Amino acid sequence: MRRSMSLSATVLATVLAIMFALAPALAPSLAIARAGDGSSMGSRGSRTYSAPPPTNTAPYAAPIGRSLTAPGMSGGMSGSMMNGRSTGGPMHGSFLSGLFGGLIGAGIAGMLFGHGFFGGMGGFGGLIGILIQLALIVWLVRVLARRVSGPFFAAASAPQRPPGPMPNAAPAAGGRPGPAIGAADFQAFEQALHAIQSAWSAQDLAALRRLATPEMVSYFAEQLADQASRGVRNVVRDVRLERGDLAEAWSEGGRNYATVAMRFSMIDVTLDAAGRIVDGSASERVSASEFWTFLRAPAGAWILSAIQQAK
pTM above 0.70? Predict the structure, then answer.
């Protein structure tokens, strides 16, 4: 009897340990996390799939994962507009999603027919066996994710330039000087950071249309719709730009572009329909580092055209 109770306690401890280990990987994330949902998306003209140079604020940026600009194009729309994703951009996300879905589908089918996730695996049955097999699947997906995404991240990890004064211009294609970026431009970028986060929190698409390209607004609208379907609302307030500097500036197609690295802090909370906080803290600030790319037509104002997460 004592041996049976000891075995039961051991089994329970093992199950709890595995469940806690798997929780971060398997539990759905509720946090919306500021405008852009912590994604890397948008268009940077002909440089959409080129990593911006490192800066003192951020060493390098994550590659664009979602864009209407196809590789090799100088900007604008492509055939991928039908589904809102680039047909030639990084495909590791969809590949891994399909692989993971296939593994889970095969596992569920095996369970329905009484063979476990992998046809039994020599007695890998019962709750503990299923949890262990899930852990193996999560481990496999993580390994594949690192291997598939490695080349894209390696392309962005250029050596950081030594500290120095903030540049007023960056080289454009062909070695020509890019547009001069001065104090007024940096002030416009900081104001855009505040205005976009405020419009995002208010779910004000009309304001976002004045601040960002139609492509970026479409992504924001999709993310806000996702919030509505969950019955939650993300609110970002008291945004403070802690540090920012210019990564590059260039001209193409009659437009000026500027990519800036920004590190900012904020109060970031997610509320339910009753206004209760379900994620985040109303008193603790959180920080983020991102590359924002702005474009400007002649005699026009800067508007947001891409966001990339700093890695």
Answer: no
